[in-house]
Design brief:
Length: about 475
């Protein structure tokens, strides 16, 4: 079997009976065995259960009744997505031993199509971070350079796909947690429109921003996996049912006459090499017949303060449930209820989580609410209006994803503000709720992946995937040397 098996190839192998699910699963488990010791993508892999499910899938297919063409293909799932009977830690000590009694809506959908759970992937604690360094389970390393971060917070999922340990993976994106690691690891990652995918069973970080999305080694794979998880769900009142118009056959890469907006603000403070690379790729889109439209997203500079006020405010409320009483870590030394809360939370949560709970609680407190939280909401409105105006003259927006390529482990971890600043190009899409993706645009001179961002108006996943497809076709495929 080839070293890398994409979702599409796996589906073809199974359909032609050239490989069984058991063989695919075995090959991937061997790859994880040999590589993950130095990458640390996975927090949990349930070998025996996985092999058992693969055999079940093989039996379904042998009986002529596969649940879908993808029946029997395993995918990796970020560890903040609830999995029944499989430990779900959110990368935190406070949930180190938490085994949920139910499945997230996305996991139910995947299981309904016969896909298998390959494993749960490493992440920044409670999805707060941009490097996967805040995980209680140790950092994930970038497959292109083990001294560097894979990005975050879905770093484990991105690295697993980049290293071909998983055909595809699920992640979550509150402020860039799919796109930034996809960019750092050289894979495709899409954050769909807010509401496209049910978040029932996604452990909440900042509910007005959180969205589940997908990683693939190709744009097609990211789209295919997304098509399997989207749709309305009574378990998430913000989810909606919309037609899936982005199946592989819908993605032609045909761009003639398409208006591609290029926001000047997204090229400021970005490394010269990334700017040059993205501009060169924009030139190639123009050669395909797209019309390049300069646009302005003038409130971009406020995105960081707006996001870090709203996200922390929501987090401070969402994380109140970890109190040592109902589930999760309970401190054994506590002698009173107050001490139980204090000790469980102060020993269960890591430093970054505490920083954010304190920040969020502060900005919501009486006397400060108007000055901070309310003001942030007004800023959010300005950013939403920015996009509304932009989509009057452009069908899609392209830009860099990150200001630099993958940075070194330890380089930024002690400077939270600088770490927050690194989200400048991704968080606006979450504030506006629009779909956005990262697609590889080649390697830097030092051999690190460069990501190109494509953003579209609400529910225009098809357009962004189509442009991403063209970008992918315009360059050589990249892969880490492992
Ligand atoms: N880096 C951002 C944060 O720390 C975004 C994280 C995310 O999208 N989950 O909040």
């Amino acid at each position: 079997m080839k070293q890398r098996i994409t979702l599409k190839e796996g589906t073809a192998l199974l359909a032609s009976r050239k490989a069984s699910s058991r063989e695919i699963v075995t090959a991937l488990l061997e790859r994880i065995e040999s590589l993950d010791g130095s990458i640390n993508s996975f927090i949990t892999v349930q070998r025996e259960e996985l092999l058992r499910q693969a055999e079940e899938s093989d039996r379904r297919r042998a009986a002529g009744a596969p649940l879908s063409p993808c029946d029997g293909i395993p995918v990796a799932v970020k560890d903040n997505i609830i999995t029944r009977n499989v430990r779900t830690t959110c990368g935190s000590r406070i949930l180190e031993h938490f085994v949920p009694p139910f499945d997230a809506a996305v996991c139910r959908r995947l299981a309904g199509a016969g896909l298998l759970l390959l494993g749960k992937t490493n992440m920044d604690e409670f999805a707060m971070g941009s490097s996967t360094e805040t995980s209680f389970f140790g950092p994930t390393r970038n497959p292109y350079d083990r001294e560097r971060v894979p990005g975050g917070s879905s770093g484990g999922s991105a690295a697993a796909v980049a290293a071909a340990m998983a055909p595809a993976a699920l992640g979550s994106d509150t402020g860039g947690s799919i796109r930034q690691p996809a960019a750092f690891c050289g894979v495709s990652g899409i954050k769909p429109t807010y509401g496209r995918v049910s978040r029932y069973g996604l452990v909440a970080y900042a509910s007005s921003l959180d969205q589940i999305g997908t990683f693939g080694a190709t744009v097609e794979d990211a789209a295919l996996l997304l098509s399997l998880i989207c749709g309305g769900d009574p378990g998430d009142s913000t989810s909606v049912e919309r037609p899936v118009d982005f199946m592989p056959e819908d993605l032609t890469g045909e761009l003639k006459g398409m208006r591609i907006g290029v926001p000047e603000e997204y090229f400021q403070g970005v490394s010269a090499e990334i700017v040059e690379r993205i501009r060169e790729r924009i030139g190639r889109l123009e050669k395909r017949g797209a019309v390049i439209v300069p646009i302005s997203l003038r409130y971009t500079e406020y995105a960081i303060p707006v996001y870090y006020l709203i996200a922390t405010a929501e987090a401070s409320s969402n994380l109140a449930r970890y109190d040592g009483v109902r589930y999760g870590y309970r401190d054994g030394e506590a002698r009173s209820l107050t001490e139980l809360y204090t000790l469980s939370r102060s020993r269960g949560f890591g430093k970054e989580i505490k920083r954010r709970i304190i920040l969020g609680t502060f900005s919501l407190s009486s006397g400060y609410y108007d000055a901070y939280y309310l003001k942030a909401l007004k800023g959010r409105r300005l950013i939403i209006d920015d996009f509304r105006r932009a989509f009057e003259s452009a069908d899609v927006i392209v830009a860099p994803v990150t200001t630099t390529t993958a940075f070194k482990i330890g380089e930024m971890i002690d400077d939270p503000l600088q770490m927050y600043m690194s989200d400048i190009l991704t968080i606006s899409a979450n504030l506006a709720g629009i779909p956005a993706m990262s697609v590889p645009a080649g390697l830097s001179s030092s051999g690190l992946p460069v990501g190109m961002q494509v953003m579209g108006d609400h529910f225009r996943e098809k357009v962004i995937l189509n442009v991403a497809r063209a970008i992918e076709e315009d360059g050589e495929p990249i892969a880490p040397r492992l």
